[in-house]
Write a structure and sequence with these properties.
By secondary structure, the protein is an alpha+beta fold. Helices cover 31% and strands 25% of the residues. The chain is globular and about 65 Å long. Pfam families: Amino_oxidase.
């Protein structure tokens, strides 16, 4: 059978790869144009100084509906993180978790000084409520800030400051819990129904696996796009490509001159990696610094698969120092103060300026036609729905369906 004419996809991140996969299922042979040398976008593992470092500390929530659909979880060799956190507060550390998953955590959780017994019972109540609340109902709920939501649930200021703020600052990449309550409920439900996981070979294994599922897709790497019109793609090199269908799986604003694309605000963060001689952070557990005034929000220690050495990632959301040298110095001091590491060797840092879209009126999905911006041009990206891997996949799926409808 003669293959259908080619559709171009700009961007080889999660959205673009899913769009290509769906188009292949419909008989197309898409072409992905990617400005860098490899797939991944924001979901990438970088080889650096002999280490494999994720582009920012990221986890895969195993309960994401579309992760279950598109990913071979067994092949990814997922490391499950413990359900809970190791919290530093007021010169003490507390281990908290879900005793329904690990009974050994019951006493430490009850005894931890992060909130009252009433607070911990409210957490259990919230777990049960969200277990039975459908995703459709979550995304149809009235929006308020996450902070307002937690206050209305009756949580004390103590547990908000010592648990919810540091934990969800690392997820939402903002310290004030101003993110939509819909997003809070969605993420909280996903944590309750599955696990936070990290592939054995790093978060980039996700996009590498998605790439391996493509058998009729051509890649144009190291190829920047300057402009897209309804029937042409202008490359940075000056070359022009005629097209009958394009999916822009990257920020569309700069590529569509004259078209009013919504301005997307982005949250940023910095992730720093260190080799350390020791750490008091329990295995497979996220550590949170609840004390005010620190640069570091969360810490994660793991054994590097290639070298066998202990690597520590430190994520910062707000940096006040003017130079990266001062930030590194400050974070090293915090790592030594909290984790007990006496030898802290700096490896690398990544400033991620487009880490998460900062959006309101977040959604789970939409009609495929909603992705259309020009007659032959569609868009994809998590910014269309919510800042999650699931949303990136959904946007790619819908863009593929939408553009296929226009080709008939």
């Amino acid at each position: 059978m003669e293959p259908k004419h080619k559709i171009y996809i700009i961007g080889a991140g999660v959205s673009g790869l899913i769009a290509a996969y769906e188009l292949e299922q419909m008989g197309y042979h898409p072409i992905i144009i990617e400005q860098t040398a490899e797939v991944g976008g924001r979901v990438k593992t970088i080889q650096e100084k002999g280490y494999a470092l994720d582009l920012g500390f990221q986890v895969l929530l195993s309960a994401y509906p579309l992760a279950k659909k598109y990913l071979d979880m067994d092949q990814l060799q997922l490391n499950k993180l413990e359900s809970g956190a190791f919290i530093y507060a007021n010169n003490k550390s507390y281990l908290i978790g879900d005793p329904l998953r690990n009974w050994k955590i019951l006493i430490p959780t009850l005894m931890s000084d992060i909130g009252s017994i009433a607070d911990k019972l409210k957490i259990l109540k919230l777990n049960i409520q969200l277990k039975f609340k459908s995703l459709d109902k979550i995304f149809a709920s009235p929006e308020k800030t996450t902070l307002e939501y937690l206050v209305e649930c009756g949580f004390s200021s103590k547990i908000i400051e010592r648990f919810f703020k540091p934990f969800f600052t690392g997820i939402f990449l903002e310290p004030d819990l101003s993110t939509s309550s819909r997003m809070f409920e969605f993420v909280y439900k996903m944590f309750g129904e599955g696990y936070a996981t990290i592939p054995e070979l790093g978060i980039g294994a996700i996009t590498k696996q998605l790439q391996s599922k493509l058998h009729h897709t051509e890649f144009m790497f190291n190829c920047g796009v300057k402009e897209v019109t309804n029937n042409q793609i202008l490359l940075q090199s000056g070359e022009t490509i005629a097209h009958k269908g394009v999916i822009i799986a990257s920020s569309p604003a700069s590529l569509l001159p004259g078209h009013k694309s919504p301005t997307i605000a982005w949250k940023k963060c910095m992730c720093l990696y260190f080799e350390v001689n020791q750490t008091n952070i329990p295995a497979n557990t996220i550590a949170l610094i609840a004390d005010a005034g620190n640069y570091t929000n969360n810490l994660y220690a793991y054994t590097d698969a290639a070298t066998g050495k202990t690597i520590l990632s430190a994520t910062t959301v707000q940096q006040k120092e003017p130079s990266i040298e001062k930030i590194i110095e400050k974070v090293i001091m915090e790592v030594q103060q909290y984790t007990g590491a006496s030898l802290v060797h700096y490896i690398q840092h990544y400033e991620i300026n487009f880490a998460l879209p900062d959006i309101k009126d977040i959604k789970m999905t939409a009609l495929p036609s909603n992705s259309k911006v020009l007659e032959n041009v569609f868009v994809a990206g998590d910014y269309l729905f919510n800042g999650s891997l699931n949303a990136a996949m959904e946007s790619g799926r819908l863009a593929a369906l939408g553009i296929a409808e226009t080709q008939r």
